[in-house]
Amino acid sequence: MNLKKIEKFIRKQKVGFICSIDSENYPNVRAMLRPRKHIGLKEFYFSTNTSSAKVQQYLNNPHASIYFYHKGLIKYTGVMLKGTMEVLTDQTTKDLIWRTGDIIFYKKGKTDPDYCVLKFTATSGNYYSDLQTQSFEIK
Question: Which of 20, 28, 55, 124 has its Cβ near the most Cβ atoms within 10 Å?
Fold first, then answer.
């Protein structure tokens, strides 16, 4: 298994899906813009609204997964990573992934209390391509 190939695949995707667990223990899946930053396959950083339901869900239960896929004319490729999600509100982390255009969503800028960062830390994953699935651990 070539983990660098999987990392490169994820980097090319414009959208990812994140999954949280709600108060009734059901999974909740949401589409998100690509991670603002990632470190290998281990850490992924997303921006979101502090007031969103997913933030409360992650605070209550940090178990999470993220998924990226590409559907071509013939070939389908997908990567699912399992791990935990942290809600970060410290200014250093918020500054790290802030983009100028974010002002549209966070009127008070990068110090807006409704702006936070979701940090996903992966422990394992599955890669699907060419009708085959391969599981892998992330160290």
Answer: 20
The backbone region for 109, taken as left when phi is positive above 0, alpha when psi lies in -120 to 50, beta otherwise, is left
- Tell whether the torsion through CA atoms of 77, 130, 7 and 27 is positive or negative: positive
Alpha-carbon distance values, 63 to 25, 48, 117, 124 (Å): 11, 18, 16, 12
Q: How many CB atoms lie within 10 A of CB 14?
A: 8
Residue-wise pLDDT tens digits, 65-99: 999 999 988 889 999 999 999 999 999 999 999 99
- Are 88 and 51 a contacting pair, CB within 8 Å? no
3-state class (DSSP) for residue 112? coil
Q: Is 12 exposed, middle or buried (0-12, 13-18, 19+ CB in 10 A)?
A: exposed
Separation between Cα atoms, residue 88 and residue 1, nearest integer Å: 32
**pTM for the complete prediction?**
0.94
